[in-house]
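step: validate -> pass
step: tokenize input -> pass
step: predict -> running
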Amino acid sequence: MELNDEQFHRYARHLILDEVGEEGQEKLLGARVLVVGAGGLGAPMLMYLAAAGVGTLGIVDYDEVELSNLQRQIIHGTADLGRLKVDSAIDTVAALNPGITVIAHREKLTQDNVAALVAGYDIVADGSDNFDCRYLLNDACYFASKTLVSGALLRFEGQISVFKAHQPGRPCYRCLFPEKPPADLIPRCSQAGILGAVAGVIGTLQATEILKEILGLGDSLAGRLMLYDALSSRFQTVKIAKDPDCPLCGTAPSITEIRQVA
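step: predict -> pass
step: emit ->
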């Protein structure tokens, strides 16, 4: 597609980047990204992806906006209390950039719908807050040969990685976390708390990695896990090795189809 006059002005700061330019902006406008969760991580992701001109954004969420969400889920406002998060997010994104398409998936992610949802997009972003969704997305993206950009939060810390296990030598999420931890071992944000701005840091980093993947820029986080500690103001990156015994992407996989995590 060719950029029109309005797009030349809107994306001017992209166009003057040699690494992006008109060709790169056209890639962004032609891209399709699925964001699972319109909460703490999904909110900044959606806003920055929309602002960047990612042409089609899908949003998966079935929750309603609650007052306690507003401390970090910046895509929603006080007037949105009680509304579906998907609907609130769509309104915000439309106000920010009416030139893109937003598709609402007002449903819970399950083993029955995850494959169809993932199939319709180029890149999948995990902004969920539970391990069931993380494993479902990991497995579905692996079987569909799709890139997964994953983030997680707790208290004053966050983590992010990119999983492209369909490519030779690349690990999947199960290589890092083979099994779901016990429910009482890693509490959710609703139990342990979260400094709101940390969600903004990790969600924005996820958006950055998505844009890099679309544009083919820089070094991918695939095979690496980036850890952020807000209290010490430190980032740390550790390598993730592909596990030959991984039940999904290993040499003798036991997981051969998408299934709900027990």
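step: describe -> The first strand starts at residue 32 and ends at 36.
step: cleanup -> pass
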